[in-house]
Amino acid sequence: MSKIKSIFKKVRVIILLFCLLLALYVINPNPWQEGVAIRGVTKNSSAYLAGMENPSPNAFPREREVIISMNNQKISNEADYKIFVGKLEANKTVQITTNKGDYRIITRPEIEVTTLNETENVLVEEIEYFNKTVNGTTILENRTIKRYIDVPKTETKVIGVQDLGLSIYDAPQNNIKKGLDLQGGTRVLLEPETPLSASDMDIVISNLKERLNTYGLSDIVVKEVGDLTGNKFILVEIAGANEEEVKDLISKQGKFEAKISNKTVFRGGEDIRNVATTGTRAGIDPQGYGRTQDGWVCRFFFIVTLSPEAAQRQADITKNLDIVTDDGGEYLSERLDLYLDDTLVDSLNIAATLKGEAIMEPQITGGGAGKTQEEAEIDCLKSMKRLQTVLITGSLPVKLNIVQTDTVSPVLGKEFVKNTLIVGILAILAVALVVFIRFRRWEISLPVIFTMFSEIVLLLGFAARFNWNIDIAAIAGIIVAAGTGVDDQIVIADEVLRGSSDVSYNWKQKLKKAFFIIFGSYLTTVVAMFPLLFAGAGLVRGFALTTIAGVTFGVFITRPAFAAVVEVLLKR
Q: In whole angstroms, what is the distance from residue 305 CA to residue 271 CA?
């Protein structure tokens, strides 16, 4: 008992215990967690209209919104959710209770529309925004315009219930973020057909993110990676999506169309020669600030360069439009609608000066709002960046080729997790048995097992804190780190036992000699792992990072604590 008390008085042991508590706090384990976590919310779906939002990509897994019940029926897992949703009927109210609030969702019917060979005259309403000056202050107002238009007559038929728009998975029981290997999903490696500059690479990555977000996908990773030869790639990872969905979205050219009165003015690609993003051709209009009843508004502008053919189409389409005059300025009676892959993403007023004019460099304008002038500027710049990205999307700087595609089903991912836990436990037991056979002393075997567990917990806590994905490569790194840890502990034990009969052989000398060997091994491992950070287009980076972090924790935290424990237990 006295030796146990002495162990807990050692500074190195206290540091290890503190780090373990901190790691457990970050991991936040809860094996009894039930429900389904929200992975994504499709735009304009029933769930989206009810106020449900996509989770933040930087949020910890345990911070995700979790559905607990639906219509007071308990939802324990993904299977319960699918059974409940499969019984839904159209135009019914669904009460969803989550760990963050309650939502009332109205189910919408799935409608099949058939276009007939007839037309009908219908009344449509449009909201137009304009600036109005009151007592010298510019405020933003809107008005509703009604007009009749001829549209094709259609026939509709209800064929089912629309999806609620929720992408879900079993609620996470800790903050360890699993990679695609363990949770299921698709990984695509893209290679530009020609080398890209840093700015063009940023544009491509922004466009891919915008395109994927347009389709309501979340848990998306789009980043630039490289290999040791200097080749640059784009890595796209999407959890919970199958290969066909991802390849279809990425392989699309990102069809962009701008329409007036449902007539195409210009398309992304050859029609858009350039989109200004910086300098005097893009930015916030210094005269575009104004006050509203709720705060501030401001306006942005940027220049788009069109082809001569697109400019002429604009002139032909706008020459017969009416001009709407108000205190805020003059605009054409129709708006410029922007479509990305046939989805309306923005609608803009057209200045009256553009009527019938074949202008090759029209100015695109828009606005932002906020409670303060600074918030309005931030929102304005964000809107401008989004719109610029949409305009460029259809004309990527370079063609992207799919180099590699990896897909893991969610079922197989769960099997990976289960098998990994079983193999890990067996490996630890096997190591403990070998160490006990080698030394035949519990004073060494038990500290070795505890140290192995400690290193794994510290690694998982570190990964959870920085949102590392734990995948197969990272698990391999954990095994390597734990294995080198056992090697170092055996070195420490051998050095201690070798001189135990020699009174003159000082304990500090023994440990100093052991740690000289350990530091040499540590530096060798780090140097060997460093090139892997950049090898294989970043696909083995998790292995290298985990190994480096694991051996670092071992050398500076766990192995000094192990040495302190062994010193107390073996010293006579």
A: 8
